[in-house]
From TrEMBL:
MF-aspect GO terms: choline kinase activity; ethanolamine kinase activity
Name of the molecule in the record: Choline kinase
GO BP annotations, alphabetical order: phosphatidylethanolamine biosynthetic process
Kinase as UniProt keyword: yes
Length: 520
């Protein structure tokens, strides 16, 4: 069957979770400050590259709510007029505005969101009948790199208070029969995702590269959400009616087998189509990321050490210089290890439970049950060995990012998958055979034990690399936490202990490397 993992949910009532969709763009107008983000034709790089400041945000006066530049018939159309489209491969609509995610509970935040949606000409969100009170805003808890919000239509005349949603479950407020909304039900705008990039995320992720990959995945493979456009420090994207998995659900056989099959499908994406000209012979991006993330982590650690006392000791114990040497020793060992696997695949690199969704509604006829599950958030995706991607997923079995006190710790919750669970996962993964875009699913019991054992070896070999990488991620993400420590900021509320996470992942790297005989 053809690989079509998601639906176009833009049109009210459309519920086919495997219908294909494509990204559409509207023409640029010279009188506007908006512009197109050009994807470019150069080859891709590691999923990080630049460090920019997001400390300067647009003024409220810049968020105009003037009527949108759309004809009446287009304001309510589920898709933009085809005559207004340009070649979608050329770019994505962009507005030169930035928002401060920390003010999301303030009423002006809704005005800013609506202004951006209008200027991006997001279908059904461009009506001048909509006001900031028409927005019901929910912040997705557990999102670590970015601040992510559900933007849902509020048919009630009364404004709603912003709230948090733990598991990607947006809700629409009830309407008031005594005060009907100005829009008809078939004109209600769909729920969308409004993503504000984290202040330190540009040290980790090349946003241009991320958008280019998302665009190709969506238009060529029908993977991932449609991009409605970008703003200075974020983007607006399609939402799939669904909910995120829970940490416990990852351990259910029917769930992890489905995840394994979806991962196999993703690993079949042609790397050259994504822009990696060497295909499977591309160097694993984990090495480049570790090198570059270590460079970005260094000034954060230097700042933390300047606090003196226990924090100076903490930095010394972390030992960035030592980590670099250990990773170099580990890499040289892997490169001489025959069981490391052949080449690389297009890897997601972050399949934690919050990035795995269970679609609402029924599947179309002849679609396999595992197509009910989809993966989102491709910001860390890049060529890596399949063993690395699977090992990283297994590490995430130990996470609980919604725990009230230990959300940063991977060793205080569920255990690492057992050998029996891992072998079951491998058999589901290897039962999927991809012939171009066509998918054939075989019986798990028919998978040869030799292939299962070989994949287990690949996963064990690459597992320490996952912890080394995410340990450095924790340091970079701790920039705000470190600034609060050094300045002794009063009233600072720690939402996520990035330093504790970094410390824990570093211990996991060293422990696994010792068990492999790489480190003493």
């Amino acid at each position: 069957m053809v690989l079509t993992p998601h639906a176009n949910f833009d049109s009210p009532g459309q519920m086919s979770p495997t219908a294909s969709s494509s990204t559409s763009s509207l023409p640029h107008t010279a009188a506007s400050s908006d512009s197109y983000f050009t994807t470019g034709s150069i080859g891709p790089s590691a999923p990080r590259l630049r460090k920019t400041s997001t400390s300067s945000f647009s003024k409220l006066s810049e968020f105009s709510l003037d009527p949108p530049l759309l004809d009446e018939k287009d304001r309510y159309a589920p898709e933009a007029d085809p005559e207004l489209r340009t070649n979608s491969l050329k770019g994505i609509r962009h507005v030169a505005l930035s928002v401060d995610a920390s003010e999301w509970r303030h009423p002006v935040f809704k005005q800013k969101v609506l202004s951006i949606l209008r200027r991006l000409r997001v279908p059904l969100w461009s009506s001048d009948l909509l006001t900031p009170s028409s927005i019901h805003l929910q912040k997705v808890s557990g999102a670590l790199t970015n601040a992510v919000f559900f933007v849902t239509y509020n048919p009630s005349p009364d404004p709603t208070s912003p709230s948090e949603s733990p598991l990607l479950t947006p809700t629409m407020p009830a309407s008031d029969p005594a005060h009907p909304p100005p829009l008809k039900p078939d004109q209600y705008p769909p729920t969308i995702l409004f993503r504000v990039y984290g202040p330190s995320s540009d040290a980790l992720i090349s946003r241009e590269e991320e958008l280019r990959i998302l665009h190709v995945l969506n238009t060529e493979y029908h993977f991932g959400p449609k991009m409605y456009g970008t703003f200075q420090n974020g983007r607006v994207e399609q939402f799939f009616p669904s909910r995120a998995l829970t940490a416990k659900e990852l351990r259910q056989p029917n769930v992890y087998r489905s995840v394994a099959r979806r991962m196999r499908e993703l690993h079949s994406v042609e790397l050259r189509l994504i822009g990696y000209e060497h295909g499977k012979d591309t160097e694993p991006m984990v090495w480049r990321c570790i090198e570059e993330w270590a460079a970005s982590a260094e000034p954060v650690l230097d700042t933390l050490a300047s606090a003196g006392g226990k924090w100076e000791t903490w930095v010394e114990n972390f030992g960035l210089h030592r980590l670099r040497k250990e990773v170099d020793t580990y890499r040289r060992w892997i490169e001489g290890e025959p069981g490391k696997g052949k080449g690389v695949v297009f890897a997601h690199n972050d399949t934690q439970y919050g990035n795995l969704l269970l679609l609402d509604g029924d599947l179309p006829p002849n679609q396999p049950e595992h197509h009910r599950y989809i993966v989102i958030d491709f910001e860390y995706s890049a060529p890596n060995p399949r063993g690395f991607d699977i090992a990283n997923h297994f590490q995430e079995w130990q996470a609980d990012y919604h725990h009230p006190t230990l959300s940063h710790c991977l060793l205080a919750h569920g255990p690492y998958p057992t050998l029996e669970q891992r072998q079951d996962f491998y058999r589901a993964y290897l039962s999927v055979e991809m012939d171009g875009r066509e998918e054939v699913v075989h019986r798990r019991k028919d998978v040869l034990s030799e292939k299962v054992n070989a994949l287990e070896r690949e996963v064990r070999i690459w597992s320490p690399a996952s912890s080394a990488l995410w340990s450095l991620w924790g340091i970079i993400q701790a920039e705000e936490q470190v600034e609060a420590i050094v300045s002794k900021k009063e009233g600072y509320v720690l939402e996520y202990d990035c330093l504790g996470y970094a410390e824990g992942r570093l211990d996991m790297f060293r422990d696994e490397a010792r068990k492999l005989g790489v480190l003493s």
